Amino acid sequence: MSAPRFLACGDAALSVEFGDRIDPAHSAQVLALEGALARDPFAGLIETMPSFRALLVRYEPLTLSFAEAVACVKARLTAAREQGESAATPARLWRFPVAYGGEEGPDLAEVAARSGLTEAAVVAAHSGVAHRVYMLGFLPGAPFLGGLPAQIDLPRRAEPRVAVPARSVAIAVGLSVIYPVESPGGWNLLGRTPARLFAAEAEPPALLAPGDAVRFEPAAAEDVARLAERAAAGDWRPACEPEGGGA
Amino acid sequence: MSGSFDILDPGLSTTIQDLGRSGWLSVGAPGGGALDPEAHRLANALVGAAPHAAALEIRYLGPSLRALSGPVRLALVGGDVAMRLERAEGGEAETIGPWRSVTLQPGDVLRVGALKGASTATLALSGGVAAPLVLGSRSTFARGGFGGREGRALRAGDRIDAAEARAASGADLWMPPQDRPALAPPPAEACARIRVIPGPQQDHFPEEALARFFRAEWRVSRDADRMGMRLTGARLTHHPDPKGANIVSEGIAAGSIQVPAAGEPILLLADRGTAGGYAKIAVAASVDLPLLGRLSPGARLRFERVEVETARAALRRREAALQRAIAAVAPYHQPGVVDESQLWSGNLITAVAEGDAGAGGR
Fold first, then answer.
1. Residue to test with chain A: of B21, B22, B25, most A Cβ within 10 A
2. Could you tell me the pTM of the whole model?
3. Strands B280-284 vs B191-198: parallel, antiparallel or unpaired
4. Helix, strand, or coil here: B140?
5. Which of A74, A232, B99, B352 counts the most CB atoms within 10 A of its CB?
6. With contacts defined as CB-CB under 8 Å, which chain B residues touch A145?
7. What pLDDT does residue A239 have?
8. Where are the alpha helices (DSSP H) in chain A?
């Protein structure tokens, strides 16, 4: 395991970079360091944010210099390394129903054509694997999921959409994402899920957490619409193992 | 009796903000909060509210409001704006400037006009603006649809209540002119100096691009809001992949300056997306974030490279100056009118005495 890089992000944050690519091993290191800092925070630490291969560490610049903040983080790397192995195994496995194709997934036909597959084969590929939640971000509760099968790996759309509907499941650049709310977006839309990904008043506010895994299961559009109403009302959420979601 | 008012005209984009939220970047919620936290703290000091109390953030064009129950004490800081106060009892409208509080009685109407010299101002309310705490803050986050008033900008007819039911009492407050920190950006023809620290992907840019970044005079484009601002003025090149424009998406600190493949920088502010996949050439120093929050489209700026420790020292000095300004808040007295009892009861007399003792010292 090579030593991480410590990069200044202004005078109030630093990035601990464990590698330069999307890799479950780097993600495990990131999450292990996040855990170590949560268990043993240093004076002046504000918050951390995990991403694929780096942990952003925000600190109070009136309290700590960059060098002091780096030293505080380094002191927790050993504890993080001891945790590293367990962080590599998914904390929870979620099952998300998805209405593939049709109005819910307007790019399914194009993805199939560009991949040289039938629509059914694209659905089988996307729903046939567990996707790892590497990070949440851009919008509240929005997961970036790895593990997209290579045969359906496409770039982003040339022309981004002005409005992608909430709960759309989309793929591009080797990843899957789910849009928690309506938003502009350039990813290829495969379908829609009923899961409500973020509720500011809920505890915790985000349904998913980095380190979780998600399996997508083909479902009828009517069932997805019905479940989405229940999810919005707060009386349905996707199935999860272990039940209750002890992370 | 607690103060309340209703919005007659919301202005261009008036939102409830406090000093923002922390601890939720990891779920995708940015810090948000006042674009100009200095104006926010100073305005709150002028109405006797806590620094982090929620207030109204005004962008470009201010609201008109009418006191419903009162008294309602308000103060505006940020830019140069003349407000009109129309008393319910009639008479000629008064002109009220920034840097002082004003106390409204039920039925009085205050009209805040267009901001001059800055894009952003804070209108603070005695007792703070009431709004539910969402993820630890009362700040409006419009893209997420939460915080403030239902996650949106204020509309005509919205009623605003004070968070603390405490009637404004005593004299109005002001900040004497000599104690006011400089908030306004340089005039339109001049150039703002923004201190930056080279970014986490500085090695994605050839020397020539870095030199151009620091040499160019940039302009804030029309594409500027609470998320951030696109800059125009030059195009920056990247190294070939894998040290190019695109990186593996990662967390983004406030003030980050990212450069997509097209080459024009985007400076990210309070309501930014929390993750992004473009190379960041530099990150603005914390001390200059409030100034960035005040810039309007068309404003000119230049980036000055500083070390992290230089940026911290500047932040400490700025913080001390703000504390001094807040400590200088004093009972308001109209220019030309001397109220001797207030001079003796306040600490003004001390200031005058010190001024005499140190004649020629300032």
1. B25
2. 0.91
3. antiparallel
4. coil
5. B99
6. none
7. 96
8. 24-39, 66-74, 77-87, 108-115, 119-127, 221-233
